[in-house]
Amino acid sequence: MAYSVKITDRLEDGGASVRHTVFIEEQGFEEEIDRIDMTTAHHLQVLDGDRVIAAGRVFPEDDDCWHIGRVAVLSAYRGKGIGRLIMQHLEAHARERGAAQTILSAQCQAVDFYKKCGYTQKGDVYYEESCPHILMVKKL
User: What is the three-class DSSP state of 58?
Assistant: First the structure.
């Protein structure tokens, strides 16, 4: 099945809803929307027809490094290559804007996925809302 991808300068309702479902309802995070969402982030949505089924964001850390985050796929669509599709589009978006590398804060349970996307771990495990994370980096 072919999915469509849309990237905008603002967080739209569909993307916010997917992120809420995955991060708040499924994973128990309390903080989901932040200042970056409203100021510097570029927001990606994956659509199945008119339905938003996945989301992610990317924003500049500095001139040549962009940060990917909030990658979320609705449970019924996991295991279908959508996460990789999100990463490819966010990386391309950053590269088109001058990024030489991307970084992300990976939940430790998702490290293998990001390794398959070409990321390497950097530094030690740290916690965000009691969830272990690790910094990962990829040269573009």
Answer: strand
Structure token digits, residue 20: 């809420």
Is residue 68 scored above 90 in pLDDT? yes
Q: Give the Cβ contact number of residue 48 at 10 Å.
A: 17
Alpha-carbon span 79 to 49, nearest angstrom: 19
Q: For residue 120, what is the DSSP state?
A: E
Contact in structure between 77 and 53 (CB atoms under 8 Å): yes
Span 8-14, average pLDDT:
97
| One-letter amino acid of 57 | R
pTM of full prediction above 0.85? yes
Q: Which two tokens stand for residue 140?
A: 């573009």
How many whole angstroms separate alpha carbon 88 and alpha carbon 34?
24
Give the residue among 46, 50, 1 at the shortest CA–CA distance from 19: 46
